[in-house]
Amino acid sequence: MLGEARRLFAERGIDAPLDELAARAGVGAGTVYRHFPNRDALVRELYDAAVAELHDFAPEILRAETGWRSVELYLERLGAWLADSPYLPLVMRRVAELDPSYRPGAEFEAGINGLVARAQAEGTLRADVTAVDLSVLVDMLGSLGQYGHQYLPFWRRQLTIVLDGLRARPGTTPMPVPGQEFAAFHDMSHAKGPKPVSS
Predict the structure, then answer these.
(1) Is 50 exposed, middle or buried (0-12, 13-18, 19+ CB in 10 A)?
(2) 70, 76, 167, 168: which has the highest count of C-beta atoms within 10 A?
(3) Is the pTM higher than 0.70?
(4) 31-35 contact pairs (CB < 8 A, 24+)
(5) What is the pLDDT of residues 21-58, one digit of tens each?
(6) How large a percentage of the chain has pLDDT more than 90?
(7) Residue 195: what pLDDT?
(8) Separation of CA 91 from chain center
(9) Which CATH fold would you assign to the domain 1-37?
(10) Contacts for 103-111 with beta carbons within 8 Å, 24 or more apart?
(11) Would you state the CATH architecture of domain 46-169+177-189?
(12) For residue range 117-127, what is the model confidence (pLDDT) as tens digits?
């Protein structure tokens, strides 16, 4: 049923009718509500499943033969995962609204910092790139999913451009401002969407 929920939410957003989920899954509405007493419970389940998938990615990424290969795999695997799951940013935002103290994504900070440090020690990654920079780039690559599956065969063009921009080499343009702290990025990424402008 979770697989059908992913497909439905990818097509219609996380507020799609749960009766439609029941119809797609070939079960009665009561069965859906026995598994997920309300929409928020389903959203939370999708969020936790996404965190589990990140854990599944981690060994391949962190144990790559070089730091640069870890950077490549981080952007490639997570960018493709997000592009194929366009509902995830909305799921992240909803969970942040429901439970702002729930922060399992923060546990990945040390691993991302470690792969950045490793690649920089090799001299393959720009010295001024941070873990947050890589995480923002994952979001940017993942946002290509908004174009639908017809664009997915082409998204590696953008991945190639991004990777070339990350490589350490003479003559790179200095970063215009210092990088954002990871905790601030985590909170921001779980609260995507327009905010009212304060006067």
Answers:
(1) buried
(2) 70
(3) yes
(4) 31/1, 32/1, 35/1
(5) 888 888 888 888 888 888 899 999 999 999 999 999 99
(6) 40
(7) 46
(8) 11
(9) Arc Repressor Mutant, subunit A (1.10.10)
(10) 103/186, 104/48, 104/51, 105/51, 105/54, 105/186, 105/189, 105/190, 106/182, 106/183, 106/186, 108/54, 108/58, 109/182, 109/183, 109/186, 111/58, 111/61, 111/62
(11) Orthogonal Bundle (1.10)
(12) 999 999 999 99
Instruction: Scan for tokens 């003559």, then name that residue.
Output: 171
pLDDT score of 78 more than 50: yes
pLDDT for 150 beyond 80: no
How far apart are alpha carbons 140 and 124 in whole angstroms? 22
**138 touches 185 (CB < 8 A):** no
Place of tokens 């790179």: 172
Write out the two tokens for 167. 């490589």
pLDDT at 192: 56
Q: Which long-range contacts (CB under 8 A, 24 or more apart) does 35-43 make?
A: 35/1, 39/14, 39/15, 40/94, 40/98, 42/5, 42/18, 43/14, 43/91, 43/94, 43/95, 43/98
Residue boundaries of the structural domains of the chain: 1-37, 46-169+177-189
Mean pLDDT for the chain overall: 87
Mean pLDDT of 159-176: 91
